[in-house]
Each structure stands twice: as structure tokens, then as C-alpha cells.
Amino acid sequence: xxxxxxxxxxxxxxxxxxxxxxxxxxxxxxxxxxxxxxxxxxxxxxxxxxxxxxxxxxxxxxxxxxxxxxxxxxxxxxxxxxxxxxxxxxxxxxxxxxxxxxxxxxxxxxxxxxxxxxxxxxxxxxxxxxxxxxxxxxxxxxxxxxxxxxxxxxxxxxxxxxxxxxxxxxxxxxxxxxxxxxxxxxxxxxxxxxxxxxxxxxxxxxxxxxxxxxxxxxxxxxxxxxxxxxxxxxxxxxxxxxxxxxxxxxxxxxxxxxxxxxxxxxxxxxxxxxxxxxxxxxxxxxxxxxxxxxxxxxxxxxxxxxxxxxxxxxxxxxxxxxxxxxxxxxxxxxxxxxxxxxxxxxxxxxxxxxxxxxxxxxxxxxxxxxxxxxxxxxxxxxxxxxxxxxxxxxxxxxxxxxxxxxxxxxxxxxxxxxxxxxxxxxxxxxxxxxxxxxxxxxxxxxxxxxxxxxxxxxxx
Length: 460
What we know:
3 domains, 7-stranded mixed beta sheet, 30% helix, Enolase-like, domain 1, 6-stranded antiparallel beta sheet, alpha/beta, FAD/NAD(P)-binding domain
């Protein structure tokens, strides 16, 4: 008989842990999964899914406004936060039930309590104070938002966790941060009718994205909200009229809510990693190899807790690859170099591959193809909106190494484009693809003349 109570013990019921547990069980492994909050993790419970539902809600405001240009007469729209919250929360609960059911159907035993590591093969269930011996342990506990900068009064702010618990739509909200979480929530609240201020200490939003896309977003957001770039928060205090945020330029912003979305950290506190000699990296994450294995052979980690690429689909792929490698006899590494991604701002951003600046550094001479145009829908609605598309090509191989889209449904388009780029499509492949007309996406295959050729730094 086995010396272990289970073959695999998964700590964390988010996207990566759930996928790993299901696939491992499918290969015949005995699997237990501990989750102290709700199965589904950040993405399903208080992240991607409920936030995207809020994005959809906000976009109806534009649809109502645009309808008149197409002959529709629409009465004065009225938004009810309570209805959105009730229906959004019900959908989250429904999805949570599906996650539970899928795990149970796969044969995974779900343990609804916190688990910590005791030794390389033992975990302790805190609430019931019992131990479980496992041949392998997979850590998939994700990350949590932090309140930074640590200025006076920062405790008065909420994070991307508490934002889903708001019982009413704030009339005024200050969003602090320049990453995709801050950008998306600022867009949501502005669209739903809150007087929204987005504050970021940098001179551009979305660090790491293509500079022209960042500039296009700033221009669009400048029309939708009060955008404050290059400004730093000094403190927050409660006043009779709400929360007052003091900035480094001497100005003040009065708001009903302050949402801090400046970063996330791995959930490693009290996990017991020190007991088994696993040291964290500079970001507080668990170091792993290409197969998600830690320095302790029996302990693995996937998802945001490893800080490799903090995206739900990446965590899912890592969890699946772990199960294939360890239990399926198919050693599988996840390639983190090419990840299609989207920012659900309004307008959206879809990206795969290198930015123009990064491609220039990596490949040397590149061709940059661009298209800027007014979407067809805007010609009748009268909306002042522009779409930006960029295709970046390595001149030496003709391979497309980056595609950037700023505009309606960019996230949907970039998923399909990501397949082509992942397969190594060349610009010639794009050129010989017949366009779907009339669509905005057809511009990706009709750009023939590069707007500019970029040489390596110091050349040309």
C-alpha cells in the first residue's frame, strides 16, 4: 500500500489549481484540493469574470448614445447598480458551482479550508487540525492586491477585492494605478456614470505595452474621465464631503471611494515554505523551473504565486502542463514568450508579441505597418473614435513578431491573430489572406507599405 494519503495535494482552488487537479485525476491520480475561500479563484470570484460583466454593463451607455445616428429613438436610460450587482453575483455563484461539480465529477476531493505545508510530503488542514500525507504538493494560491503607496490614510481606500462588495455606485471615484486593473475599473466606473479620476505616477499608462497604443488610450480616456498622469498620491483623509486625496502638486481630489490598483503580491504568507527551505525571489514569488518544480522535488507551483506571467490563461496552461508532465508521461513546458492578451478598457486593447521598441531591440531592422482610421459604425453615430492597428515584422525573416490593436473588439480579434503569430506567420502569409469585408480587422491583411523601417539602435 502507498505510504501517502493522496498522490497529489493542491493548495488553492483558482484557475491553475483546478485545471491541474482535474487533469491529474483524469490520468488516474488520487487528488485532494484545499481552498479556504471559494473555488474559482480570483478570475471567477473577484477578477476577470465579474469585471468583464461590469465592462459590458458600462458599454451600453455608448450604445444608447450611438443609436440615434442609426434612426433609433431611445428614452433617457437609467442604470441601477443593485440590479447589476445582484445578477453579476448570481452568475459568479453559478460558475463556482460548475467548478465544484467538475472537480467532483473528475474524482477530486475538495477540502474547504486552509492548508499549510509541514514538510515536503505533508500538509496541515488548519480548521480541522489534521494532516495529510501526499506524494506531491502543488501550490496554486495566487496573489492578492496591495495598498500602495504606503501613505497616511491609505487604509481608507479599497482594492479590486472590495470593489465587488460596493452596495451603491459611487458618484465620485478616484482610481490609483496605471496597470490593466486600474485602467479597466476606471473605464467601468466612468461608463456607468461615476465622476472618475484616474491617477498614475508615470507619464504613460500600461507599462510594457506599445507606446503608440498607450498614447491612444490616454487620448481616449482623457475624453472619458479626469486623467492625471505624472502625479503622486501623498495621503488620504476623511472629510465631511467624502475622502480627500492630496497630490504632490498641491491639488486635492474629493471622492466617495478611492480604489487602489497599484499591484499584487503572491499569497505566500504563513504557507510554510520556510519549513521546507524554499526561499522566495525578489518579488516574493516561488521560484520554479520550466516544469513548475521548486527546489524541493515533491513540491510544485503554478500561476500568479510564481510571478511568471500573471494571467488566468497562463495559470491554466501551467496547471495543465504540470499534470501532463507528472501524471500523463508527457513532459510539457509552457512558453511564456508569446502570450496574446487583452485589456478591457473602452476602447479595448489586444496585443500579441513584441512592442515596436522591444522588437527593434530583439530583431534589429523591423518594418512597422500601421493603420489609423475611423470605424464604420462611428460614421453614422458621430462618435469621435479612432482605431489603431500595428503589424511589426522582422525584416530578416519576414515573420510577424508583434500585432497591436486599439479599438472595438480588439480582444476578440487578437485571439485569432495570436494563432497565426504563434505558428510563425510571415507578412506574406498575412498579405495572401483574403480580407473579410467590411470589417475593421481586414486592415490587418491589407496593409502593404510599411510606414517606417526601424534599424537597430545607432544604425541608419
